[in-house]
Amino acid sequence: MEEHFLENDLKTIGSKPLGLKGLLAGKIMNIIHADFYRNIINEIIIPYEKNLSEINILDIGCGGGTCIESFSKHPSVKKVYGIDYSEDMVKLSCKLNQNKISNGNVDIKLADVSNLPFENNSFEIITAFDTINFWPDQKMAISEILRTLKQDGCFFIINAFPKEGTKWFDFVKYKNEKEYKKFLSSNGFSDVSCVFKKNTIIVQGIKL
Questions:
Q1: Which candidate in 162, 184, 190, 191 could, as Cys together with 168 as Cys, close a disulfide (CB 3.0–4.6 Å)?
Q2: Whole-prediction pTM value?
C-alpha cells in the first residue's frame, strides 16, 4: 500500500499530504515507521541524556506526529516542536500528541522549513525524517536550520537510501554518503557522519 501512494502521486502526497488521500497516507506512515523511527530516536537521544537535563527538539516535516510522540517520552526532553506545511498533517500530528500539547511539552505549528518561526539558537537537536527531498529551496532551508540550532547543536537527516536504478534513487536529491556530507559541511556543519540502518541513511552534523 505504501508503494501505491509513493508511485502514483509521489510529489503531491509526499511533499504536502492533503485531503482524504493525504490523511490516509499520514496514518499509514505512522504505522509503518513508528517502531523503526522510535529505535533511531532512542539512539539520537542517549548521548544527550548523559550530558543535558533539558533538551529542546524541532522535528521538521512532522507528518503524522509519531516522531514527536517518541521524542516527548524521554525524560531529558524539555519540549518537542514540530512543523509541517500541510494543514492536514498538523491536525493529525496534534491529534496524536494532544495530551502532551495540553501539558506544554509539545508544540506543533503550520510552517515552512525555509522560514522557521523560532528564535535564533533555540534547539539542541533538529531532525528531518524523510522530508529533505521535498524542500524546494535547500539552501534557504539549511540556513534556517543552522540559525535556529544552538552552538554545538546537532542536525539529523534520516532519509530513505534506495538502490541505484530504482524510482526512489532517481527521486532523492543526494545519491550517496559523499553528497550528504558535502551538503552539510559546505553549509556550516562540522563532524558530519553517516550511518546506515536497513535502507535508511542517518546523517549527523554539528553546528560550527
A1: 162
A2: 0.87
